[in-house]
Design goal:
With about 250 residues, the protein is of the alpha/beta class. Helix content is about 35%, strand content about 20%. The chain has one domain (about 1-245): Vaccinia Virus protein VP39 (Rossmann fold). The strands form two sheets. Strands 3-2-1-4-5-10-6-7 form an eight-stranded mixed beta sheet, covered by helices on one side. The chain has a two-stranded antiparallel sheet with strand order 8-9. It binds S-adenosylmethionine.
């Protein structure tokens, strides 16, 4: 999987500058995450897990965050370093499942469009919890596989592409099958004694429009499980970006 990202690094990164659907969606996701995270005020440290070419790291550094990032793709890390040479030492090669940072070393952690590519999601969530302190913030995105757009991708498009790429491994990797929402309960469990005290969500539509979550969308229950509410955003959006404060 990460070999494919090596080959795809520049093409994926250039998507941020494209006017097409993919560009609109990833830009909207990044903007939503920045909104969910708030201002670093020059004192807070943030880690971007699966940082890709460092677009979010750059935007967060501009917002006053001290940034670090990790990605298994050397090509992505090189891109991120070229964008943020001043932070090159903290933009490193590594996997979400084994973050090369000490416990509680970040005030916030972001992971946009990367958790769905991890080989061991539980381990990745445990690691994200480990590097966050109590009262830390996490902004995690996850494909809304339960929605109608992602349903056709998850059931028809992705399985077909996966079959083709097994024979001809070109182009962007296809996310592994995922039929459930992000298991936030696993994340909260990994946070130990910490209690969830805030969870808001941004639903990203294929058009790039963002709908901010409310009680009628995905409802995050006290135990951290997510259930679908009546809000149409939960049905039609493509990506769910959730901010969790523990
Ligand atoms: C769709 S790109 C998203 C990049 C960036 N977060 C963004 O929002 O533009 C997915 C990224 O996840 C990275 N990735 C794949 N497996 C990973 C893992 N196990 N841990 C962390 N990142 C991973 C890939 O190398 C790639 O850079």
């Amino acid at each position: 999987m990460s070999e494919l990202w090596e080959a795809e690094a520049r093409r994926y990164d250039a998507g941020y500058d494209s006017t097409g659907r993919a560009g609109r969606v990833i830009r909207a996701r990044q903007e939503a995450a920045i909104g969910l995270l708030g201002d670093g005020l020059g004192i807070a440290r943030v880690l971007d897990v699966g940082m890709g070419g460092g677009r979010l790291c750059t935007a967060l550094a501009d917002n006053g965050w001290e940034v670090a990032g990790v990605d298994p793709s050397e090509a992505m890390v090189a891109l991120a370093r070229s964008r943020l040479p001043g932070a090159a030492e903290t933009l490193v090669v590594g996997r979400a499942e084994e973050l090369p940072f000490p416990d509680a070393s970040f005030d916030a952690v972001t992971a946009l469009g990367s958790l769905e590519y991890t080989r061991d999601l539980d381990a990745a969530l445990r690691e994200i919890a480990r590097v966050m302190p109590v009262k830390g913030r996490a902004v995690l995105s996850w494909p809304n596989y339960g929605g109608l757009t992602p349903l056709w991708r998850g059931r028809v498009l992705y399985p077909s592409l996966r079959a083709i790429k097994r024979i001809l491994p070109v182009g962007r990797p296809v996310p592994p099958p995922a039929s459930l929402p992000l298991p936030l309960d696993k994340f909260l469990e990994a946070c130990g004694d910490a209690r969830l005290f805030m969870a808001i969500a941004a639903y990203i539509y294929p058009s790039g429009r963002v709908h901010w979550g409310d009680a009628d969308g995905f409802v995050i229950r006290a135990d951290g499980r997510v259930r679908r509410g009546r809000n149409p955003a939960a049905r039609f959006s493509q990506i769910l970006c959730t901010a969790v404060r523990v």
